[in-house]
Amino acid sequence: MTEERGALLLRKELAAMNKSPTMGFSAGLIDDDDIYRWEVCVYGPPETCYEGGYFKAHLIFPHEYPDKPPKMNFVSEIWHPNVHSDGTVCISILHEPGEDKYGYERASERWLPIHTVESILLSVISMLSDPYTGTESPANIDAAIQFREDYEAFRKEVSKNVNDSLLKL
Q: CA–CA distance from 146 to each of 25, 52, 110, 151, 162 (Å)?
């Protein structure tokens, strides 16, 4: 029953996004026969060091969606304190629901079944707009240190990703 509910919700979300696109990203299925595997494109937010970038990622939903969060992984290279070197996005709303055993996050900051693809992608855009928040408990320690200690070098590294993303269009 849960699998059917998740698939139904994802179909509704995809239809709604196609009908009324939101600025800053686009989304579709990797394979038209699998509603649980999405490809998304996140556009670098204006007035940030990611501006002009076009970053592809995959959202892989568990069959327990919306009770469990999807996993998001950038396919495009991206340098950010909240993105692991393998492209995995590490933001609170993509963490399993409930209390954080390490005490970094409140349960209300973690995954809740009310989140949607749109709310996830808006959170990712917010993450790109403010890399500083990722320096508190980073997924990519090198990016966090560089952001704090040599912002100009950080911007140059991000600029390489932005340029590479445009070459792969």
A: 27, 22, 27, 6, 17
